[in-house]
Amino acid sequence: MYKVGQKVRVKSWGQMAQEYGVTDGTIDTPSSFVPDMRYFCGKEYRIKAIYDPVNNIYDLETITGDEDENRELLYFCWDEVMLIPIAGKLETMIKERRKNV
Questions:
Q1: Which of 40, 64, 77, 87 could cross-link 10 (Cys pair, CB 3.0–4.6 Å)?
Q2: What pTM does this model have?
Q3: pLDDT at 7 over 80
Q4: End-to-end Cα spacing for the chain
Q5: Residue 61: band (very low, low, confident or very high) from pLDDT cuts 50, 70, 90
Q6: CA atoms in the 13 A half-sphere facing the CB of 57
Q7: For residue 66, which phi and psi values (nearest 5 degrees)?
Q8: 78 has pLDDT over 90
Q9: Phi and psi at residue 48, in whole multiples of 5°?
């Protein structure tokens, strides 16, 4: 489960399609990854809110000023399986230090 403010990357379309399969152009993740969401693949965002803590569904901070002008594309719910956590600098340094001890 992710926390609000945590940085994540949206998985690639190919990776999710391989993991979950595709039906009628939509990836079969728990709440469906629709073609309009493909725009976000590979990009990094922060968790804005937790919509459903039981099913791990999130809102991402997708409006950063860099996105498409069509704001309608920017409002989606995101399943945990659609996302990859991104370690911050401190986390990375701690992991490296543990490796070397």
A1: 40
A2: 0.77
A3: yes
A4: 29
A5: confident
A6: 11
A7: -95, -10
A8: yes
A9: -90, -40
